[in-house]
User: Fold Probable peptidoglycan glycosyltransferase FtsW from Ornithinimicrobium tianjinense.
Amino acid sequence: MTTVTRPGLFGRRGGSPAEGWTVASVGQWLRSPVAPYYLVLASTSLLVGLGLVMVLSASSVSSYAEDGNSYLVFLDQLMYAGVGLVLAVAASRVPVRWWKRLAWPGIIGALVLQGLVFSPLGLDSFQGNRNWLSIGGRTVQPSEFGKLALVVFGAAVLATKRRLIHKIAHATIPLIFPVGIVLLGLVLQGNDLGTGMIMVAILGGLLWTAGLPARWFVGVGAVAAAGIAFLAAGSANRMQRIQVWLGDICSGPQVAGCYQKVHAEYALADGGWWGLGLGESREKWGILPEPHNDFILAIIGEELGLPGTVGVLLLFAVLAYACFRIVHQSEDMFTRLAASGVMVWFLAQAMVNIGSVIGMLPIIGVPLPLVSSGGSALVAAMTGVGLLLALARSLPGAGEALGGRTSTLRRTLAAVPSAESGPRAGARARRSSGPARTARPAQAARSTTRAPRTHDALGRTRRGHGSRGGR
Assistant:
């Protein structure tokens, strides 16, 4: 018996699946048009899954203490993850041309929602900020969806003006003036400097990818830095956080303004190399504020140790690489700009959050994307992931390759042998794989033609042998 070998998944012939995983084969797969799609899907799925597990662990104590139910925060997060999953799947199926058409309606909707924060629907103050709406008994943070709207709108406008991007008037109107300024002003009016900084980073990333001359970033960067310094100087709370960060005055948590910083460092130190174990955190017992939100990375480090925190960093690195590949492989300017905008959104927010937890930056108060607790942030981020998947599907060759997966899977399942074994199974397989057998002439005649009718001596009509007589 001869064995026929066919090319494997990575181009090798024969051998076990493990033999196909070589450095060269992985590199070849990473250069394929479907690699960005699966890298985005895998990295974000793992981040969301890890986030759900850690939200359950970090919030169980405070949920039980406040409401008598250890699963309350987790169930809310799970519900929002389900909503985000539906929106992500729907967004991934929206063609790129429709994303372009949604630019103006999306940004207008974001401006309206952000303006409603100052209406009777807005909460007076939530953790020092006025950036929340109360709708149907639940709170919604419209600025999270404003980030997504800003990415889509900026990509659509700058893609249209790509030949005039070297002119500062075309580069800034209408993206910066008036849309960006109005949206950013509404967010800052609500006292949310962290979200405002992320929006500034998104605008800068879009303009950089569009090809705005580098000399303009010097002036824009100086203006942005001056604005952040002015807003920080006007708040005693922000100045205290900056002093804690720069002054090295935290000899213990009892020092004013040092409580969160010191206990976040305690959590990471207690975790050590390998962590205390999942669910074994000590700081979540009413000690570290916001353990399931802004400081969830500290709980990850305490329970999962260095592998857990490094794993989070690697997943964000994989996501960044996938976004870079979309930008590099795409031939459409909108796709490049939108992918870079989402990449800057996720990475800038992750760096600010991680820097705040480990003490490299002042405590700014932004969640870790896809991981921290928070319904609006999670739903908006997962919708952004759906946009990334739609952009990855539009890459040259990706749509055809992804479209053929279903037929390939169907053929593969059809080739799986049944539970039978032995000579009978082999004979059946040979019959199914060989040429189709033709029916015998007599059987074909009986199956395709009806037996002639005859009449007996009494005049009754009869059919041929084996059939009933008709009346």
